[in-house]
Specification:
By secondary structure, the chain is mostly helical. Helix content is about 60%, strand content about 0%. This is Alkylhydroperoxidase AhpD family core domain-containing protein.
Length: about 160
């Protein structure tokens, strides 16, 4: 599969990405734990089949100290013992928020109750925003066939300002 369009060589796309990166910075600077941010981004990207974002978030998580065991088990987190109850709540929200079209109920009341149990209002605001943002990023990359493999940790750090 060849890339269809190079978003990084387009002026309009780059203007959009700068603003997109600024929105991401709000989440990055929030009190939502960085490990949770990366796990949620990785899980949504796996569901959406976004190789670019899977590449990015596994590398960013590893660079931030996340273990290979946890990264390798994200796709099967329900069958793993390495995630906390809070992370499980966030991963459930990420899955239900990503698969909106697959379920008539969207995010369940049970999932919401678990998220409320483990996160404060600022963390919830960041978590909900993160699920929306990563799903948008996945769609951008999947639509243009942006392939994974070339991402280097921190390569977009200068984009937000």
């Amino acid at each position: 599969m060849d890339p269809r369009f190079n978003m990084f060589d387009n002026e309009i796309a780059m203007k959009f990405f700068k603003r997109f990166a600024n929105a991401g910075m709000v989440i990055h600077q929030s009190p939502l734990p960085k490990s949770t941010q990366e796990l949620v981004s990785l899980r949504a990207s796996q569901i959406n089949g976004c190789g670019w974002c899977i590449d990015m978030h596994t590398k960013e998580a590893a660079a931030a100290g996340e273990t290979a065991v946890r990264l390798n088990l994200v796709a099967a987190w329900r069958e793993a013992t390495v995630f906390t109850e809070a992370e499980r709540a966030a991963l459930t929200l990420a899955e239900e928020g990503t698969r909106l079209a697959d379920a008539h109920h969207g995010v369940s009341d049970e999932t919401w109750a678990q998220v409320r149990k483990h996160y404060d209002d600022d963390q919830i605001a960041a978590l909900v925003s993160l699920v929306a943002l990563i799903n948008a990023a996945n769609r951008l990359a999947v639509i243009v066939h942006q392939q994974g493999g070339s991402y280097e940790p921190g390569m977009f750090a200068s984009m937000s300002s």
